[in-house]
Structure prediction request, 137 residues.
Amino acid sequence: MAKLFSDSWMQSFADAWNEDAEMTASLGTEKFSAVIGFGCKGDESPMGIVDVSNGEVIYAGDYRGQELDWDLRADVDAWKEWLTEGFGFDKLGVAVSSGKLQFTKGDYRQMIRNPNIAKPFLRHFELMKGLDTEFVR
Prediction:
């Protein structure tokens, strides 16, 4: 069991991402490339990142000062809820409007307007849900 957003957890997430045709095909079609950080609200920086190039993760691991395109933050309890119970469009709007999920970097509205990006965004929560996770900071 790996700690949420630890180097080994992020590597497992990258493996799941790259093995998932839904993720790579949709994002590849969009030529989606971005560095995405994940962490907890209130922290100075994200804990882990994925670097995505044309829909595939080319690096995953600890955050080491990389320039971010997206940075998603929530409390550990929120991450635990979403990664055990699931996270769909029904939870997305509420999570963002209530501040439970924060985009400290990245344009949330632009993302949800493009189905080829919005669907993989929700899908990445499902991939995270499949990982054996220790929910601690």
Observations:
- The CA atoms of residues 35 and 68 lie 5 Å apart.
- The chain has a mean pLDDT of 94.
- DSSP finds six helices and seven strands in the chain.
- The longest helix spans residues 115-129.
